[in-house]
Every structure is written in C-alpha cells, then in structure tokens.
C-alpha cells in the first residue's frame, strides 16, 4: 500500500510514460468541457460591462492566458529545483515539455492584451510595468528554449536550463505585483472570491476558461513529455518494448 | 438567458468585433495548431526511433555473426 | 591509493564502457589503451571528477573524489595545453602555479623551462611558438610537480623525439618517488621505471 | 581565500593590458553607439536631453554585454578553465575574481567616460554627477549577472547571440533604476531612491552570481 | 561560378538550420534591444514615435553586427577557410555566397519583424511600410560591409569588439538614409529619395565587399 | 614536377630557415623532419601558397603556384580537420567536395567513410566523435582523391595503430599511381611504396 504512493516511482519515466498516456485523453476532454461551458457563459449569457462595453469579453482569454504563462513558469522552476537537487531524470523532461506551451501562453497574453489595449487605451502597446514584465517573461521562455536547444547533451541542457529558470523566477512576482508597486495603466486585481466586483457570471466564466487553459496545458505538456521521454530513454528496456510494440502495430 | 438579441449583434460585439474575434480567433488557431504540431512531431520521432532501433539490431546481428 | 569500481560511461546515447575497475598503488603507472573513440578521454575525465559516472565509484585514499583534498593531490594535463597565448612561457608557469595555490619561485620556473628546451624563449609570447613548443610549455609544469597523482591525456602528441625521451624520463622519476600516473597514448613509449599496468577499453 | 581572488584579478588584468584592444574597444563601442543616436534621430537638443539617460544606459548594457562572451570562453578554449575547476579551492572564488576583473576592465572605464558623453547631450552638472554615480554603482551588477549568462552559454555554438538573449532581460531592472536615477534628478525629484536600489541590486548579484556561475561552469565542463 | 555560390549558400543555410538558435537569437536580440529603449527613456507615445526610426535602425545595425564575428570565424577555426582559399575558383565567389547566406539568416528576419516593433512605437501604416522596405534594402549593405570588417578582424583576439569599432562607422550612411526614409515619410516628405540612395549603397557594397573581404582573408591566413 | 629553390622563412623576427630547395617528381614522397619549432608547418604553408616566402621561388610543372591551376592539382590537409561539427561525416565529405568543385557521389562518400572505419556513424553529427574519429573524417577525403599533389601536416596525430597502417597504405597507393606527397610527422611510419626522400630543417 505504502509503495503505491512512492513519489520516486512516479518520477521514473518507465511508470510515468504509460500513466501519462492514459491520462491525456481525460485532460483533453476536461479542457473541451470547461472550454465549452466557459464560452457559453462568457460569450452568450454574461451581460455587458458598463465601463468597457462588449470589448471586455477579451478577458475570458486574456486573464487565463496571463495566469497560465506565469503559473507554468513557476512549475518549470519548481521542476528545475527538484532536478538540480535530486538529479531526477523526469524533471528536465517536464521543463522542456512545458516551455513551448508556456511561451505560447505568454504570447497569447501579449496578443490579447494588445488587442484589448487598442480600443481601451487607444494604443496597441504602452510601456507600463505589467506589460513590460510580461514581455520579459516571454523572453525568458524563449531564452530557456534557445539555451536548451543549443546544448546537445540532454543532461547538460537540463541542468543549464534549470539554472536559468531559477535565476529568472524573480520576474514572476514582479509581473504579479507590478500593478501594486508601480502606478500603471493596467488595471489591478479584481478577482476576490469573497466579494467580487465582477458580475457572478463573468467571474464564473473566467474561472471556467482558466480551468480549460489549465487542462489544455497539462494535456499538451504530457504529450510532449512522452515524446521527449521516448527519445531520451530509447536505449532502456521499457522504451525498446514500447517501440517494438509500435513495430507490431499498436497505438500511433 | 441568452444576452444577445440577434446573431449580427453577437458578431458585432458592440463595435468591438474586430478586437474580440481576433483574440478568440488567434487563441483558437494556436490551440489547434499546437496539438497538431506536437502530434506530428511525436509521429516522426517515433518513426525515427523505430528506424534507429532496427538499424541497431542489424548492426548487433552483424557483430555477433563476425 | 586510487580505486575505481565498476565504472560505466554513456556519452550521448552510446554506452562506451561498463564494469571498468582498477586499483592503482604508489609507484604504479596505468597505461590506458584502446582504439579511437573507445572512451579513454572520457574515462580520464571521470577520474578527475569532471564527468560524473553513470554508475560506479571512484575513491582516492579511500575517500570520494568530490573534495578539495583529492584535487590538491591531482595534476591533470589534457588535450589542451591550458596556456595563455598572450603571456610568455614564464608568466604562464607562474600564473598557473599561483592559481593552483602552489609555491613556485621564478628561478624554479626558469629552470623548468630550460629543461624543456625553451631556454631563450622565456620572454616570447606563447602565440609565436610552434605546436610542439606550446606543448612543451604545458609539460614544463611537470618538472617541479610534487603532487602524487598525475593524469595525462596523450602527453606525447606533437613532441619531437628528443622531447618524448625527456618526458618519459620525467614520468619515470615521478614513479620512482612513489607517485601514481595514468596516461593514454597511441605512440608506444617506453617508461623505464615503475610498475607499468595496462587497461584496454573497447 | 583572498589570495586566490587576487591572483585571478591580477592575471586577468595583465591579460587585458597585454591585449589592450579589449579595454579600448569596449569604451569606443560605448562612445560610438551613443553617438549613433543623434545621427538616427536628429539634432534637436531638447529631444536629446530627454533621451540621454536612456541612451547612455542602453549603450552601457550593450558594451558590457559585448565583452561577456569572452569572460570564460578564452579560458575554456585553451583548457585553463579545466585547471581552475580542478584547483583545491572552490570555483566560486575564481569566478568572483573574474567578475571583479571584468568590471575593472569594462565597467569602470564606462563610468569615467560617461560624463563627457553626457555633455554631448547637454545634461546639467547635477545630472552628470548622478549619471556617473549610477553607472559606477550599476555596472558591477551587469558584470555579475552577465557572468551567469556567460557561464550558461559557454561552449554553446552561437553563444554570443544566445548570451544577449539570456542576459538582456535580466539587465532590465538595472536599466530602469539607472536611467530612472538620472531622470529623477533632471526633473528635480532627487535620484537617491533609485541609487540605493541600484546598490542593493549590485550587492545581491555580485554576492550571488559567482556561485551560480560556478555551478553553470561545472555543467559546461562535463 | 554560380554553382560555387550556391554550394556555399546551401551549406551555410544548412548549418544555420542545424543550429536554429542562430536565427532566432539574432531576431530576439533585435526585439530586446528595441524594447530596452522605452524602458530607459520612458513611455510617452509622442517621444517614442519620434525615436522609432532611429532606435529600430540602430538596433538593426547592432543585431547584424553581433552575428558578424562568426561569419568567418567558425570556418577559420576549424580549418575550412584554408580549404576554401585553396580551392581552384576565386575566393571572392565563396565570400559572395557567405554574404548572401548571412543576409538571409540575419537581415531578412529583421525586415519581417520590424513592422510589429514599429507598432509598439505607435507608427502609422505608411511609416511601417517604408520602414520595412528600408530595412529590406539596407540590410544587404550591412552584411556586405560587415564581411569586410569580419575578414579584417579574423583571428585577432578581442575581434568582436574591434569589429564593431571598424564596422559601425561604415554603417553610418546606411543608418542615416534608412532612418531618414522613415522620418521623411512620417513628416510627409516622401521617402523615395532616401530609399534609392539606400539601394545604391547596397548595390555598391554587395558588389565590392566580397573582393575586399577575400583579400583580407588571404592576409589573415598567412 | 614541384620545384622549390632557395626558400627563406622569417617568422616574427626569427629566421627559421634559408636556402632550402628540393625537386620532387612523380611517385616521390618528401618526408619533412625537424625538431619542434623548426619551421615544418611554415614551409608547408609556403608550398601551398598561403605564406609568401621572404626569398626564393616555388614552381609547379614549371609555372608559379599563384594560380588556380596549381590549386586544382593540390590537396592539403593541415593541423585542423576542416570539418563542421554540426554536420554528419557524410554531409561533411559531400560539402567539402562540392566546395572544391569535385564530383563525389553519395555512394562513393559512404564507401570512403566505411574504409576509415566510420561505418554506422554516417548520421551522427561530428561533434560527437572523439579526437581520432574526427581526424578520420578529415582523412576520408583522401580515399577518392585523384589530385596529384598531396601535402599533409602531421597526418598521423591522434590516430590509433590500425588507422596509422591504413593511412600509410593510402599514401602508398597514391605514390604508386604517380602522385606526389609531402608530409611532416614525428612518429616514424613506414610507407611501403614510392621513393621516400627526406628533408631536415633546423
Ligand atoms: C499586451 C498587453 C497586456 C499584458 C502583457 C497584460 C498582462 C496581464 C497579466 C500578466 C495579467 C494577470 C495578472 C493578474 O491576474 O494579476 C493580466 C490580467 C488582467 N488584464 Fe492584462 N495585460 C495586457 C493588456 C490589458 C488590457 C489592455 C486590459 C484592459 C483594458 C487588461 C486587463 C486585464 C484584466 C482585467 C486582468 C485581470 C486582473 C485581475 O482581475 O486579476 N490587460 N494582464
Ligand atoms: N606569427 C609568428 N610570429 C613569430 N614567430 C612565429 C609565428 N609563427 C610561428 N613562429 C615561430 O616559427 C617557428 C616555427 O613554427 P612552425 O609551426 O613552422 O614549426 P614546426 O616545425 O611545424 O614545429 P612543430 O613540430 O612543433 O609543429 C616557431 O619557433 C615559432 O615560434
Ligand atoms: N558529448 C558527446 N555526445 C555524444 N557522444 C560523445 C560525446 N562525447 C564523446 N562522445 C563519443 O564518445 C566516444 C569516446 O570519446 P573519447 O573522446 O572518450 O574517445 P577516446 O578514446 O579518447 O578517442 P581518441 O583516441 O580518438 O581520442 C566517441 O565515440 C564519441 O563519439
Ligand atoms: Mg581522446
Ligand atoms: Mg607544425
């Protein structure tokens, strides 16, 4: 019984690979479900915002994307810390699998923010602290990916990338608190579950969309992780079995 | 329940249609392309690994034959 | 003194060797052999602690090699010469000693350079030296070297016949003083003193 | 401990003197970049005065960054780095020495020439003093943070460009506070707050960076 | 003749693809440098709009320049350059191929991303078009002139910084006409005159530079 | 075929040699010898036209070597391997041939790589190869090389015993076909065919 919950067992690729394989469809399904529900509530049911008109509906993508871009970075930094401390093989694979999705989320945050800014502030872009720090976050993602791509040895790439992630993690709190620390154009936090300033439907649909983005990110990260895992571990027994299973048919 | 009066209202988004729909469109695009790219990448990687595995097996056979 | 157990090395996706082990005592020389790409350089880098082994263990005087203590006993000479092209041979020797926290006086350094046949070039920047002369500057470190463990990667490369003989003599002297040495080379060079042991990879 | 740091600094400074071009070039790069802007933007003094702190600081970042790829690369290529990693004392000390030497060669000269360039942009005496102080205080942080990037990209092909990709985002706080200090002085608000933040950044990064860099260097040497 | 050029271009592009990070990094360097200025200078849109052409062009010069040291250095270090110099056909052809490949990898992407950055500075659609055109027309000249500098500093220690010292002054005409074209458009004067001067610069330098570079390379190989 | 008269070489302020001359005909091998720093590499670079001699003259088939004609007859292999680390051995061979304007089919290239013992590594980027394996990739060019004049600077460095034998065979074959070769080396290697002549510097 104890053995079941041994973290190390799940941290070993041989266990993780099939587990991820079974979980992916569920995450995809959840993402679709949350997405449809969120879109229904947010796009069809929710009333207009008295200040911003219908333009505010960009929030249903902008905020989840912004959250995920920061959250994924934190998760990557977490994995990196584990990898550097305990030298686990899985952690490097996870950070590499998460990075592209995180970068895309940062990109989406910037893009939707820009598309929102044009009607609201009259400019595609302003140089305020939150926008800038989000841009830096995108650079950090890209820097991480460029660094790991430039190093050929996978283990070395993991370690070097992990170090970079840990150094860059200081940026995340800066993004989050930038609206508090500096006097910015970008609006401050309006989510407060106890007494929200937002209409309940808006809040719910935003949360649903956030769940959708979350599930989507997990599904994609797992998909990528499986490929990376197979590639890196191709000389181990489980990977050979997996690959020769493919040889005689099998999924994909 | 539904807030909109007509479909064209829905599309117009109170004059913000371009911005709202570009945002949603770009997101939808990215969220469809990314899984496709990942799946493709997986397929080609698996194919390459299989080829390598077979090549290795052949090389080993040759070595043991010698 | 130096013990290696069951070492395994994987570079990229290739397992170069596994189950390699040896024990080396005072006055012994280990001659690492093997064809190109067998993993000799990789094994040496493992022994000096720069490349973590996939499996296995290395001990020096019974303790792990991940310590300043081991490094204080080690003298490593790689493919690369570790000399600065802008500095003169003399400055190079002195700077290397200072960075390794060793005492080396200027006279000793000049003497060492004379021994390797670089007399008269102490004041010429190293970039003007030929391939073989640069190697000689690197080897000059060994003249006054008191540390017990020498690890040398293809030390004879680019040396002419006279220099090869000289180096063989230096290594013999080290072994006679109770030192240990490990080296790789594709040239067959006779080391007159000490117990010579061989290890073949691949 | 101290004598290792001193040995490294002495050796690196001697190498820099021997090459000369190093110090001179970083400085001239700074001067040229700063002088390019009036050419690209036009000669209106009012506009230029507003630009000055930003332009000077960006040029300082770039000049520092340009000399970074060689911080460890030379030692790596010729095998010296291996020897340093094999020395009995911790590698972090060696890196501390290299960071100090880098600052002496690349940061200090910038601070010394900055007032002259500031004059070209018609800055007031007050602003010039704060500018010099800010560059003096901020450039050690640039050397420190840069060392991490240089170590991470060591031995990586295309390292120079990659390095700038990694390091420039991390330089942004220094840029903001550095340029902010001068701006604040110009607009009469006083730059002390910004300067003390800069000092804090420098302390933190010079203390922390050598150890992170040492870890990265060990990875590069595997 | 043509097949030598093609062979060089194909090889260099393949190497660039194999490294990937090359292209991406030069581009992002451009983006980052451009983004640094508003951070240093402040967010006022009016001010930024005036700066935009100058800042974008200076960043383009710097981004091109940053990839220059490796134009010949890699081939030099691994001995390929010697072999190329010993091939029966003239070395100038090889250099022509390398300049073309360099532009495809470093100049073209800049032109493609420039409009997006122009948006950040709130430029009008007209100005964006002229900006893109100017960068398209001007960057080949940057690659050409840069090749001469890269060849001259080949094998010289500290070459990277020295290179910028040699090349940046020669880039100034490109900068002036390039930024001038956009400025003229913004102020309603029409940028055609500047653009045709840019085109002339590019023609002259792409035609001439390979042969000058080849001569410099032969000196470096002695 | 190749004539050198009265060559003089000055590097920095040092005159390395003067009055060096030789004549080399078809099927002949010139073995350049001399201690470290004697000027062997410098002489070779003179012969291929990269280093202009201070005095003296070099002629190939009676004409100056400053021509595309001479370069079309020359195959030079220096200290450096002239291979790209990012490309595979196969791509390297093909690219080198294309850049030298030679015809080399993929099959021929694969065959050459097999001969140098790199079968099975055609698809591995060269950066993953060991010191000796990289040298082998460089030497693979010689397998299909038809040009008459080969100039090789320390070709045996970093090669293991088997590879040294193989290379000696290749050079013999070249001489038998009426080729010329000039090389330096500190290792004594026996070349079975052709007339071997020696030139000592310093
Ligand atoms: C490119 C430009 C933009 C970027 C990079 C950006 C970035 C971010 C980030 C990182 C967050 C999440 C942080 C948090 O929840 O506290 C966020 C939230 C938010 N953003 Fe933006 N944003 C941009 C433009 C805009 C614009 C133009 C608007 C509206 C006028 C806007 C409105 C919001 C709102 C309402 C939130 C939710 C805040 C909350 O309730 O917590 N953003 N943005
Ligand atoms: N650029 C230079 N400036 C000054 N002296 C130089 C220069 N290049 C080489 N030398 C000197 O020329 C001499 C000969 O160098 P060369 O490389 O030709 O020797 P070599 O015979 O090939 O030696 P080795 O066997 O060590 O390779 C050396 O003594 C070196 O100091
Ligand atoms: N970073 C790496 N990634 C993948 N493979 C590598 C890496 N480094 C080395 N190798 C492989 O490891 C093998 C051994 O390399 P090593 O340098 O240890 O050989 P060696 O015995 O010293 O050979 P040589 O006699 O040629 O110097 C080579 O086949 C090489 O292809
Ligand atoms: Mg080796
Ligand atoms: Mg030589």
Q: In terms of per-residue confidence, which ranges of chain C show pLDDT below 50 for 5 or more consecutive residues? A: none
For the CA atoms, what is the radius of gyration of chain C? 17 Å
Discrete helix count of chain D: 9
Helix content of chain C: 25-40%
Rounded to an integer in angstroms, the radius of gyration calculated over CA atoms of chain D is 18 Å
Distance between the termini of chain D: 25 Å
Tell me how many strands of chain D there are. 0
* Series of H and E elements of chain D: HHHHHHHHH
- Tell me about the biggest sheet of chain C? 5 strands, parallel
> Considering DSSP H and I runs of 4 or more, what fraction of the residues of chain D is helical?
over 70%
Oligomer: heterohexamer
> From the helix content, strand content and strand pairing of chain D, which structural class follows?
mainly alpha
Q: What is the CATH topology of chain C?
A: Rossmann fold
Describe this structure in words.
The complex is a heterohexamer, with one copy of chain A (252 residues), one copy of chain B (66 residues), two copies of chain C (202 residues) and two copies of chain D (222 residues). With 252 residues, chain A is an all-alpha fold. Helices cover 75% and strands 0% of the residues of chain A. Chain A contains nine helices and no strands. Chain A is globular, with a radius of gyration of 20 Å. With 66 residues, chain B is mainly alpha-helical. Chain B has two helices and no strands. The N and C termini of chain B lie far apart (79 Å). Chain C is α/β, with parallel strands linked by helices and 202 residues long. Helices cover 30% and strands 27% of the residues of chain C. Chain C has six helices and nine strands. Chain C is globular, with a radius of gyration of 17 Å. Chain C starts with a strand and ends with a strand. Chains in contact: A-B, A-C, A-D, A-E, C-D, C-F, D-E, E-F. Chains D and E meet through helix 2, helix 3 and helix 8 of D and helix 2, helix 3 and helix 8 of E. The structure holds protoporphyrin IX containing FE, adenosine-5'-triphosphate (ATP) (2 copies) and magnesium ion (MG) (2 copies). The site of protoporphyrin IX containing FE has 23 residues of chain A, from helix 3, helix 4, helix 5 and helix 7.
